[in-house]
Design brief:
single chain; alpha+beta; Aminoglycoside 3'-phosphotransferase, Chain: A, domain 2; 2 domains; 9 helices; 38% helix; nucleotide-binding; kinase; ATP-binding; Aminoglycoside phosphotransferase APH(3')
Length: 256
């Protein structure tokens, strides 16, 4: 759906934000699992959602500002809250996401996907202020479950309540690195053979690398089909995979 004027959005837009977006036509973006409204113009993105404690756009704004010192991510152009909604306006990164490239060249897409994740996990983490370790995520998972924010269709053999108890009782030792938090093909953009940027970084922070690896392997198979894991590992460079951690973080991701 197209919105030629901010006054036609399905929510009131703050006056100062209207001044920044009035001259553009906005298209609603339906791709993704976020609970936010997402709109795209030629050079900007606008996210809007109801104010909530989990996955807040205010926190995403803070992460973008910090990550921008280390990685190519969208620039923050505006943030505000009004009438129970929060609004985040960012620049739009040029290029195509890797799910588009995978249609034409799956091998190249997988290689770039793995190399780009290695870049995240190789950055120094001493000054990262965003804790996404298990000790932080488990209480968030319980809050999300109590608030009805967890998709329970993925819990076929065990209830989410029982699964959460199992996760709380079997926390693995963590190898903390800077993680993206939602590392999948549509969130990595390339242009002219070069990395142009990363998007949807609201869950970024210090976490075990398997937080990203679990999603990365799922996205690789989803976008390219089976049999590309070896290519991924060649480029990422991990000598030994921990299947127990993959299972653990895959289960934990089911709450987010």
């Amino acid at each position: 759906m197209l919105y030629p004027d901010p006054m036609t959005f399905p929510f009131p837009v703050p006056d100062d934000l209207q001044a920044l977006i009035r001259q553009e036509t906005w298209a609603e973006v339906s791709v993704g699992r976020s609970g936010a409204w997402v709109f795209a113009a030629d050079q900007k993105f606008l996210k809007v959602q109801r104010v909530q404690t989990a996955d807040s756009l205010q926190l995403e704004q803070q992460k973008l500002l910090w990550l921008g010192q280390h990685l190519p991510v969208p620039a923050v152009l505006h943030f505000s809250q009004q009438e129970g909604h929060e609004f985040l306006l960012t620049s739009r990164i040029a290029g195509q996401d890797l799910s588009v490239l995978a249609i034409k060249d799956r091998e190249q897409a997988v290689r770039w996907f793995a190399l780009s994740l290695k870049r995240w996990h190789s950055l120094p983490v001493q000054d990262c202020p965003f804790d996404r370790s298990v000790k932080t995520r488990l209480p968030e998972a319980r809050l999300r479950l109590a608030a009805g924010l967890v998709d329970q269709t993925g819990f076929a053999e065990v209830s989410p309540e029982d699964m959460l108890e199992q996760l709380e009782q079997s926390i693995p030792p963590e190898d903390l690195v800077l993680t993206h938090g939602d590392y999948c093909f549509p969130n990595v953009l390339y242009q002219d053979g070069q990395l142009s940027g990363f998007v949807d970084v609201g869950r970024a922070g210090l976490s075990d690398r398997h937080t990203d690896l679990t999603l990365a392997l799922w996205s690789t198979q989803y976008n390219c089909g089976p049999g590309w894991e070896e290519v991924f590992w060649q480029e990422y460079g991990l000598e030994q995979l921990d299947p127990q951690k993959l299972a653990y973080f895959s289960a934990l991701d089911g709450f987010f």
